[in-house]
Specification:
Layout: H1 3-21, H2 47-61, H3 65-78, H4 83-95, H5 100-116, H6 122-135, H7 140-152, H8 156-169, H9 171-181
Helix pairs in contact: 2-3, 2-4, 3-4, 4-5, 5-6, 5-7, 6-7, 7-8, 7-9, 8-9
Length: about 200
């Protein structure tokens, strides 16, 4: 055997060994949580959200972006105040970027996470919220959360402008934003979580 053939055989052997150690979820659709590794990632969320968040992080470490998003959606459904779910969405979107829409969603989720940390982060959140519709003008959630942020900042004219845009994109979200502009708290039964301060 020549040195080149030996090197090629060793490289192929190493690749084959690596391929057999890849997570099952990366091998195709239908692989579920039973084939994922165990992740322990404590967060300040309710018990149902905590359990699902750890499944989401297993998907993250398996590079299973669609499953990660679906799992984090279930975390948010279980506990809308779970800011780490939005952080996880931003992290996954940044890692899985394939289009401007993904980047817009990443900015939107990062901004939400910052806003939820309190008034001290509102300006930082605003930069990311503003970037989201620049990248994807049809991203309704960006206008929803911009409107919430402007309401919190006392800029009702800007909140109403975002509401007007939202009416065209998603009337249900627009109705939620209208309630918040009118003075409803974010946690008044419409699934929006209040910030922490």
């Amino acid at each position: 055997m020549t040195a080149r053939t030996t090197m090629l055989a060793a490289t192929l052997g190493a690749l084959l060994a690596l391929a057999t150690t890849l997570p099952a979820v990366a091998q195709g659709p239908g692989a579920g949580p039973a084939k994922l590794g165990k992740v322990s990632f404590p967060v300040s969320c309710n018990a149902a959200a905590q359990k699902e968040f750890e499944v989401a992080m297993a998907y993250y470490h398996s590079f299973a972006w669609p499953q990660l998003k679906a799992s984090l959606d279930r975390v948010i459904q279980a506990d809308p105040a779970c800011g780490m779910a939005h952080w996880g969405r931003a992290l996954g979107l940044l890692d899985a970027l394939t289009a401007d829409e993904g980047l817009a969603e990443a900015h939107n989720n990062l901004a939400f996470s910052l806003r939820m940390q309190g008034a001290a982060n509102r300006e930082r959140a605003l930069k990311h919220y503003n970037r989201a519709p620049e990248l994807e003008p049809r991203l309704a959630q960006a206008y929803m959360y911009l409107g919430v942020l402007f309401t919190q900042m006392g800029n009702l004219a800007r909140a109403r402008a975002d509401h007007a845009t939202l009416l065209r994109l998603d009337p249900q979200l627009a109705a939620r934003l209208a309630r918040i502009i009118a003075g409803a708290r974010e946690d008044d039964g419409d699934g929006l979580a209040p910030q922490y301060d």
